[in-house]
Design goal:
The chain is of the alpha+beta class and 206 residues long. The protein has a domain of 60 residues: Nucleotide Exchange Factor Grpe, Chain A, domain 2, CATH 2.30.22.10. Helix content is 55%, strand content 16%. The chain contains 7 helices and 6 strands. The strands form 2 sheets. It has a 3-stranded antiparallel β-sheet.
Length: 206
């Protein structure tokens, strides 16, 4: 085979010799190794990102599951505990029905019966507390509708208005939730309480 470029410069072929020789620019081919390295680095970064997201999702799932299990263990007995409170209330009513004078003058048989009821009540409350149910008595505390239910007002100028002065029925908590609010009587400050408070404030301001 003959090279056509040789004919272009062949003096014996004047037609070919008159045409100028144009050289084609040389284009560097892409380095396959460089492209592969960049692609691998990108794939590795994407895989690492996916792995981190998956790990974060798994950790969130683990925490959520642990929290749900703990809540189920703590609050799963809510209905049962609320029913048991009726028994505790009945035991308390039985004790309240016996006047203090009768207890003091009771014969040994009656005293044993009263002590047995008291022991049963304490045992029941201890069992509830072991399962996360605690009794609370808000006497003397500021009335909080989140934990107490006001049944009536008691005129009493000796304490600030809105103070729990009587507890009709004790309240119970289960974990951090209210199982049953306490039924209470709340103080209502008398006419003498407001001027006294106003005088205190004016004196402190002076």
């Amino acid at each position: 085979m003959t090279d056509p470029d040789l004919h272009k410069n062949d003096p014996e072929n004047p037609a070919q010799a008159s045409e100028p020789v144009v050289s084609k620019p040389y284009i560097m081919p892409d380095d396959p190794e460089t492209g592969s390295a960049e692609a691998l680095a990108k794939e590795a970064a994407e895989a690492r990102d996916r792995m981190l997201r998956t790990l974060a999702e798994m950790e969130n799932l683990r925490k959520r599951t642990a929290r749900e299990v703990a809540d189920a263990r703590m609050y799963g007995i809510t209905g049962f505990a609320r029913d048991v409170l009726d028994i505790a209330d009945n035991l308390q009513r039985a004790l309240d029905a016996v006047p203090a004078e009768t207890r003091d003058n009771a014969d040994p048989g009656l005293k044993s019966l009263i002590e047995g009821v008291e022991l049963t009540e304490r045992s029941l409350l201890n069992t509830l507390e072991k399962n996360g149910v605690k009794k609370f008595d808000p006497t003397g505390q500021k009335f909080d509708p989140n934990f107490q239910q006001a049944m009536y007002e008691v005129p009493d100028a000796s304490v600030p208005s809105g103070t729990v002065v009587q507890v009709v029925q004790a309240g119970f908590m289960i974990g951090e939730r209210v199982l049953r609010p306490a039924l209470v009587g709340v103080s209502k400050g008398g006419a003498k309480a407001a001027p006294a408070a106003g005088n205190d404030q004016s004196n402190s301001a002076a």
